[in-house]
Design a protein that fits this description.
22 helices; Alpha-Beta Plaits; disordered N terminus; alpha/beta; 644 residues; 3 domains; six-stranded mixed beta sheet; seven-stranded mixed beta sheet
Length: 644
């Protein structure tokens, strides 16, 4: 009885389990576990496909950097507000499109002469000092005048403990646009009201960090006490475009800034493309000392910010571990101007899980159905196609993570391949054990190379059966010693089975002194009746020489008698569990056994049945006559024309 096979093979189960384990782990693991590799991959993808689009933008951006050299030339930080006012005035003189101050000017000025006079008057109660203050240099007044002289946006930060009012910017929305996932805080810290009132714009300086500490996003909008407020980069772009406010549209979310319309991420954060471009950078000290080329600032969006560690404005980003925050704001402006707004589609993770399931099923199918080399090539092509699809989507500003589908598919492929390899080796070992004692090595290798050619569960096929027997073996057994007999039989069986294998036959079994062999099983063997006859003739010649020499002659080994017949038989595994035997049953098998015994009556060595005799032809056989066999009636029998 054939072994019942499971509905799913072990390699398929191994592959499915390995791939599903990846998917389930991704579903069960905290989202932070996925974010780190995912964001790194998105960095690489966006840098590869979106950098060119951003570089092609004609938006002119310039940075005024308060770097270490500027601090050495002008003085240590913090600079007096009069100095910052002069810096803004110097930039304004170049007629830029907009100025964004990436510096937090929190609270009232306390260091200018006017501020000191007011503090002394308040402390001492002296009216003369209070009257003197308006005549002295006033940092806040100078800064307010500088901010009011041009399109300047000041910055503020989200602060749950802050109580400063943030200047409102008109934000119109159609059909009640909702941004529920905005970055929200209950308060903010920013410039004093008198200074903020003079500025043309106001945006947040706050930059969120990812799980790995890198800044990859710049706020377009945040919420302060549930009121929508813009980011500094967005305000700079608004001032440059001359727009008075923003227009938000739903389905899909869109942001309008004057004539410019861009997609708006639901969380209000713009995902940056790492290293998306460079900006013209001037030192603040050169502007203050009148040594800068102002032409670089004309018509540009100018960001004034810190580039020295003392200002605390250096942030770790995908661009550089120490990136000035003003440069990140510049990247955001450049991206918005170029229309590059990468977003994760709604339900992206669910789509990635579905893709992982599809890829792992495909991987299991490839590993199971194709040869290893071809399966590996097709699997590699599938992974490349998956990455190519993700890159194409990234070029369209849609972030799809190919890592989960690729990892699930790869592990499923490897698990299936390894299990298939193990199963193949085990099957080969079983086939070798089952047939290496019955068939020639070359035939065994053919079976191992193409096990599907076997029908072990049973089939009807035409075979030629050859049965041998040693004449007078019972008496020889009585007259010989056991060691002698075993030694002679070992040599006898070795020779006979070798000859059977050389002629393409299969040794079915050794029973006592008899050899049962089949031709045309388990694999097709052309002209098998003639091959069986040629095998019988060679066995007869070899056994005659064998029994005439050495120990076989000493114990009087008898001649070998053989019976051959061709016919339809049932061929396949018979037995239970591990006790399976590949054998044949049918009239041809029974007839061959009876023909072998008939040699004793006919005085022949090879007796051939009517079907095999007819198939071999008159040139190879000669008739022995007609005999009566029980169950078969009278039949013609033959012998080899070259044998007695």
């Amino acid at each position: 009885m054939a072994e019942r096979r499971p509905a799913l093979s072990r390699p398929v189960l191994a592959g499915l389990i390995a791939g599903l384990a990846v998917v389930l782990l991704s579903l069960a693991a905290p989202s932070a576990w996925r974010e780190w590799p995912q964001e790194r991959l998105f960095d690489a993808m966006l840098g590869a496909v979106s950098g060119g689009r951003i570089a092609a933008s004609d938006t002119k951006i310039a940075l005024v950097a308060i770097d270490t050299a500027s601090l050495e030339a002008v003085g240590p930080w913090p600079w007096p507000r009069e100095t910052i006012a002069r810096l803004i005035a110097a930039v304004t003189e170049a007629r830029p499109a907009a100025i964004a101050l990436d510096i937090l000017l929190a609270g009232d000025d306390t260091r200018s002469p006017a501020a000191l006079a007011r503090q002394l008057a308040l402390t001492t109660g002296r009216a003369d000092l209070a009257a003197l203050a308006p005549t002295l240099e006033d940092g806040d007044k100078a800064l307010a005048e500088a901010a009011g002289a041009g399109p300047v946006a000041l910055g503020w930060v989200l602060d749950p403990r802050g109580r400063d009012a943030v200047a409102e910017v008109p934000v119109l929305s159609r059909d009640g646009v909702m941004l529920p996932s905005l970055w929200r805080e209950s308060g903010a810290t920013g410039p004093p009201p008198a200074l903020a009132a003079q500025a043309a714009g106001s945006g947040t300086l706050s930059l969120p960090g990812d799980q790995d500490g890198l800044v990859r996003r710049v706020p377009l909008f945040v919420a302060v006490d549930d009121r929508l407020r813009p980011g500094l980069a967005l305000e700079a772009l608004r001032l440059a475009s001359g727009a008075s406010g923003y227009l938000l549209s739903p389905a899909p979310l869109r942001l309008g800034i004057g004539a410019l319309t861009r997609p708006l991420p639901p969380d209000g954060l713009l995902r940056l493309v790492p290293g998306s471009g460079t900006a013209v950078t001037l030192r603040a000290s050169d502007l203050l000392l009148g040594q800068a080329d102002l032409a670089a600032l004309a018509g540009a969006i100018v960001l004034i910010g810190g580039a020295a560690p003392e200002l605390g404005a250096l942030r770790a980003s995908a661009r550089d571990p120490l990136t000035p925050s003003s440069l990140l704001q510049a990247d955001a402006i450049r991206q918005l101007a170029a229309g590059v707004v990468p977003q994760r589609p709604a339900g992206a993770f669910a789509m990635e899980v579905l893709a992982a399931l599809l890829v792992l099923v495909a991987a299991v199918g490839l590993a199971r159905r194709l040869r290893p080399a071809m399966a590996t090539l097709v699997m590699a092509a599938l992974l490349v196609a998956l990455l190519g699809l993700a890159m194409a989507l990234a070029a369209a500003d849609l972030l799809f993570d190919p890592l989960l589908p690729a990892l699930a598919g790869l592990l499923a492929f490897l698990a299936t391949s390894l299990a298939s390899f193990s199963e193949t080796r085990l099957r080969e070992a079983r086939l070798r054990r089952r047939f290496e004692q019955h068939l020639a090595p070359g035939v065994v290798e053919r079976i191992v190379a193409s096990p599907s050619s076997l029908k072990l569960s049973g089939e009807r096929r035409e075979i030629t059966a050859l049965f041998t027997d040693i004449e007078g073996f019972t008496q020889t057994t009585r007259d010989s010693g056991p060691e002698q007999l075993v030694s002679v039989l070992d040599g006898y069986f070795e020779g006979v089975t070798r000859i059977v294998g050389e002629h393409g036959g299969m040794v079915d079994k050794l029973v006592g002194d008899a050899v049962h062999a089949f031709f045309n099983a388990p694999l097709d063997l052309p002209d098998h009746p003639r091959r069986a006859l040629a095998c019988a003739v060679e066995i007869l010649d070899w056994t005659e020489r064998y029994r005439a020499d050495g120990l076989a002659a000493a114990i009087g080994l008898g001649r070998t008698r053989q019976g051959i017949e061709t016919g339809i038989a049932i061929v396949g595994d018979v037995g239970v569990g591990a006790k399976l035997d590949y054998t044949a049953h049918g009239d041809a098998v029974n007839t061959a056994a009876r023909l072998e015994a008939l040699n004793k009556e006919l005085g022949s060595s090879i007796c051939i049945g009517p079907v095999a005799g007819q198939r071999c032809g008159a040139a190879l056989v000669r008739p022995l006559g007609r005999v009566e066999l029980r169950g078969l009636g009278e039949i013609a029998v033959f012998t080899s024309s070259s044998a007695g």
